[in-house]
Amino acid sequence: MGQSLTSAPSNIALIKYMGKIHKEGNIPTNSSLSYTLEHLRTYVEIEKSKSTDTWELLNGSAYFPFAMSARGREKFLEHFQFLKNKWSISESFILRSANNFPADSGIASSASSFAALTLAAANLFEKINPQTWGNDVSELSRLSQRGSGSSCRSFFSPWSIWSEEGAQPLSLPQNSLHHLVIVPETASKKVSSSEAHLRVTHSSLFPGRAQRAQLRLEKLITGLRGHQWKDCFQIVWDEFIDMHQLFKHCPEPFDYRTEMSESILVKLQNLWRSQGDGPLVTMDAGSSIHLLLRPEQKELALLLKKEYSLLCPVWSSL
Ligand code: PMV
Q: Residues 59-73: pLDDT tens digits?
């Protein structure tokens, strides 16, 4: 029995999930808030197999080639086994997946891949052994969280807030932002986000991190509700700098920022200084720089896309 293609979007956190209270179940140290990136997606296809569960790359010209690491495959198959157990499924399957953007470069491919895997499995398993909760989006988000924490936010769009109760949609006035991600390095990053979550808990800046994130979360929601874009820019900027400072102050420090990403950040700061307006700017655990712009900033978004495309790959919603 084959299955049609299922896909799920990535998301970009403006208030970051970084550090876990419990590794088991990916229980975060603090609440996070993200914008869902509908144009950056993982596609998953599941087919019955006579042997054991395996993973293969999904072929197609729309996808970005990548080699899933041995650990990546293991985590993907472990999560699939967890889902099979939930639905009491004993058959074996071939999983095929691919992204329409480069993996492991700070575009949160784990968010879209685990969300897509959870959705694809739920679609298929509901046909084999339906469950009362099998189509409940909040339940699927909770299941996905076990595979990758940030994936639980990809089930809601355009804004998703992940707090103690799990992820849920958040209604905010900005519901159709332009998104650009500038990718200075398409090679896989050296420290995985799983490893970053572990190391940051030993960072000298980790004490107080949950409180700082919570305060920014509240201020950002107020700022977005009040259309205080400049305030929002500053909060979002301070937040990603905070996360990257945690990385630098670990006993085993690491840094995703490159010369290129630094120079792009300086240009963006100068833009804000000279115009008093600009995009929201953030970075995840990688060297990529994400920009979010209001609908009426389309011209600026196109200009930035053109300018940065001369330096490195840019993926955008435009
Ligand atoms: O879901 P994970 O374990 O890949 O965590 C990703 C965490 C960040 O992308 C760095 C931040 C976030 O909130 O998405």
A: 999 998 878 889 889
